[in-house]
Amino acid sequence: MRKNIVIVALAFLTGCKSLNSTQKGTGIGVAGGAAAGAAIGKLTGNNTAIGALIGAAVGGSAGYLIGRHMDKQAEELKQAIPDATVERVGEGINLTFNSGLLFKLNSAELSNEAKQELDKVAGILSKYDDTQILLEGHTDDTGSDEYNMKLSERRARAVSSYLESRNLPASRLNTKWYGESQPKFPNDSEANREKNRRVELAIYANEEMKKDAEKGELK
């Protein structure tokens, strides 16, 4: 079974350029839900945010409706926060902030500009209240493993706490931190290290949205 899942995952990764976002969500859900998420997570550098999005997929016609619903939310996020990276993945959304946009070097205190950006994010997430949010903190490899783990925790918690202060229920937020263990790029230049210092959000359907989609009632 695992071998079949990996084959499907590879097919998705190599063929996704020919699919639109909604079609990607449908295909991944059919590929096997959480198991496919684990396989694709390994193939994409063990990125847990991406793996969570793939694992949350339900597929089929319900997945199609969820994907279409997420398309609208992703577009609003792109327009509201152009300095962040917003990508549709499976039936969810991957939103990535470069930590330099949120924090000063070696600090976990949110800047005023960061708070303004997070206000916009909170407003959109509150509007689409049928989603769950996985929030992750990451660093580059500068400094010790222990220091980086603690820094990624403090930054992830700072963003999570601020979103809660903007009336996002704690029950919607799942906060994790990984230090330097999940680089998106090789830590071989300052430009790449800057990209690895990031706070990442995975936005995916909650159980209520999934049920509505399965009944064909999701608009």
UniProtKB/TrEMBL annotation:
PROSITE patterns the UniProt entry points to: OMPA_1, OMPA_2, PROKAR_LIPOPROTEIN
Q: Which UniProt keywords apply?
A: Cell outer membrane, Membrane
Localisation: Cell outer membrane
The record ties this protein, via InterPro entries, to: Bact_OuterMem_StrucFunc, Gly-zipper, OMP_bac, OmpA-like, OMPA-like_CS, OmpA-like_sf
> Residues annotated as region Disordered?
174-197
- The name this protein carries in UniProt is OmpA family protein
Where does the OmpA-like domain lie? 89-207
Membrane as a keyword of this entry, yes or no, is: yes
Chief location = membrane
Answer yes or no on keyword Membrane: yes
Q: What is the lineage of its organism?
A: Bacteria, Pseudomonadati, Bacteroidota, Cytophagia, Cytophagales
Q: Which Gene3D superfamilies match?
A: OmpA-like domain (3.30.1330.60)
Q: Which GO terms describe its cellular component?
A: cell outer membrane
